[in-house]
User: Fold this.
Amino acid sequence: MASAPHDRRPSSQPPSSLRAPALPRGEGTILVTGACGRLGKHVVRVQHRERRVIGVDRRPFPDKPKDVVHEQLDIRRKKLKDVFRAEPIEAVIHLGVMHDPRASQAEHHSWNVAGFQKLLEYVAHFKVPKLVVLSSANVYGPQPDNAQFLNEDAPLLGGARFSEIRDLIEVDMLAQGFFWKHPETETVILRPVHIVGGVHNAASNFLRLPTIPTLLGFDPMVQIIHELDVVRAIGRALVPGRRGIYNVAGPEPLPLSHIVKILGKPSIPIPYTFGKAILKRLWAFRLTTFPAPELDHIRYVCMVDDRHARRELGYEPATSIEETVKSVGLESW
Amino acid sequence: MRLGGRLRGVAPLARKLIDVAVSGVDDWMTGKLGEEFNARLARVPLNLTATGIDEFGLDPAWTKYALASAAFLHRKYFRTEIFGRENVPAGRVLLIANHSGQIPIDAALIGASMFMDVEPPRFMRAMVDKWTQTLPFVSLLFSRVGQVVGVPENAKRLLESEEALLVFPEGSRGIAKSFDKRYQLCEFGLGFMRLALETNTPIVPVSVVGGEEQYVSFGNFDSLAKLLRIPSLPILPQLLLPFGVLPLPTRYRITFGEPMRFEGDPDDDDAIIEEKVFAVKATIQSMLNRGLKARKSIFF
Assistant:
């Protein structure tokens, strides 16, 4: 299939200043931002077996695979441009979204929005053919009047009650704008449901609590997805020709109480108003990592319809619901 | 610490008590409703996922009890008479009914008859108001017995998976009718017709006679209802009587009309959709009128 014979081993790539010969679509270099997050590491580990991978993160990547180039830099810095200039990049996977509820709003905004804008600028300037952005189904937000399964056209109301998520919505919107403005780049926006596994996000941390608090009289249906299924979805999104916005759901939805049952942990039901007041206090005293508005996630449904991803990306979750739930208890490394 | 220890001691006891209560209720159910109830339960077509519930949160174990209580009302309290049960098709269907009676007993009874009298037995779905989702326990119960939030996407998804969906196009205007307006249909919403056209679903008109007399309403406190943010606040003198909270044991008569099929563009102008809606409304009104004429007594 390849027109010119060439060695694809990344270690034998020519020095970056010489510019590598163009590889056929779907085999060129991938740049992964946020490569040192749990998910980033998974993506790097899966992709580097087939393609050259450059990781970008401001954290170090001590246990990176040998053939992966890691650039330890802040994506807001000019240095990022040098990475793009050095060699042709075929795809950018943007995972570098900061979601630390404790970080200041300004820092959050600057990192997530300004940093992403810089990245988009370079993607456009260097005519990168593929951009994959990992957004989240949380951008829709849990609402009492949500449809049971939201499709990709649903309004992004996640910020209505929970302002900390606004910059994630902004990232999603920027990516959408980019999708329309730069048709020469195939932009894929993935909106996965709650990612669980070894990752440290609110959903996984919540399920790792020794006793799981629930809201008295509420037991919403929830969707969770295993981190490796997200990695799989990203892999599907990299296939040339795929573009668009896709909800990504894991195995079948289930009530929160069933998740608790599968984990075999005790749970305490707490009345909503009481729970909210306590959580606010705990938050103020820095005793919890869960901001009070996130309680809505265990109160109302926020589930997505992933039919498009299944049909158009050919994505299919490979982890059963039982394994997915239990993965929060396993430390993968 | 000590509290935890005590709780641990109480938990198995509580579980045992619950088990006893559940098996007691099960026995009572079979006694009152007959073996047929359980036999029908086994024949309900369901789309369950691996975790034993469906994607809207319907849990057959919960639905069983909800249906048993509805069936008790249906058979013993309101002694419902059913007409035209053969008119309900087996696949996807939109049941369009008149709404009455201050509290939605009509929905429960239609649901009970869809399970007890119609072939094959069905777990009927209905749409509930959005604000019910903010209520603890209520939202949970509704979800487990298969009632979904009233948004068009949900209705479409249910019909596409061949469910039976009940819609009251009158909405809360209909249920809060005062006694002098009984059995006069209020304005119909148009959404159900667009839905039927879009999903190519047959419409079964349903008339419910008997609901308007269960609570005699002299009117509504509209401004107070608005203040309390509830859909309506009827004036019900019977509440002053002993046991007046219970609805009067009127006899319900539920008639399923012949399925109506419509064709056309679901995105047509309101005027065109209105014509089709009017055809359904007229059918239900004439079914109501006939039912009222045939009725000899409100209570028997």
Q: What stands out?
A: Chain B touches chain A through 24 residues (CB under 8 Å). The mean pLDDT of chain B is 88.
